[in-house]
Amino acid sequence: MRHSKNGFLLVLLTALAALGAALFSQHVLDMAPCSWCILQRILFLAIAAFALLGLLGSTFRPWRLLNWGLIALTAMAGIAVAWHQITVAAKAFSCDQTFADRVVSGSGLESLAPWLFGIYATCLDASVRVLGIEYAAWGLALFAIYAVYSLAMLKTSWRPNESEKFKGRGRR
After folding, report:
1. Does pLDDT of 23 surpass 70?
2. Cα separation, 52 vs 70, whole angstroms
3. C-alpha–C-alpha distance, residues 67 and 58, integer Å
4. Any idea which fold 2-159 has?
5. Which of 10, 22, 108, 159 has its CA 20 to 30 A from that of 119?
6. For 125-131, which contacts have Cβ atoms below 8 Å and span 24 or more sequence positions?
7. Considering only CA atoms, which of 63, 67, 65, 101 is closest in space to residue 85?
8. Alpha carbon 75 to its chain's center
9. DSSP-based helix, strand, coil % in the chain, nearest 5
10. What is the pTM of this model?
11. In this structure, what DSSP letter does residue 89 have?
């Protein structure tokens, strides 16, 4: 259980750090985000939320399993989004009316918090490199780490530890 609690905390902090890096890049370094960038932000925010929920209920094994599973699924979605951004969207002249654009615009998040979810660039313009690596590839790497880590935590959380095996067994 403690291992799971620390794991949720690690995922929460790194997801918030990824969001912080995106906001720093946008508001300080003037790197305008495209719709696929914003969709990645939404997925990082969802992962942070699931990690927080898992952290708060980490003593209850079914709750741990649920949240590790949700983190794994969201991370896999993040891998797909980042991969699409790198291989397809970054080469497109416009992101208008793409899946990401429809999700972000349709959710109302863009008007709710434009400083976080506002789309300010085309996919081609938003394709930049940081330390020689495409910005979206950094997101893809972190999503991949979350996917592997959450699946490993799901596996270890699935099996009851020794203290849980003997819980409920009274003396006869």
Report:
1. yes
2. 12
3. 9
4. Bromodomain-like (1.20.1550)
5. 10
6. 125/32, 125/34, 126/31, 126/32, 126/33, 126/34, 126/36, 126/37, 126/90, 127/90, 127/91, 128/31, 130/25
7. 101
8. 6
9. 75, 0, 25
10. 0.81
11. G
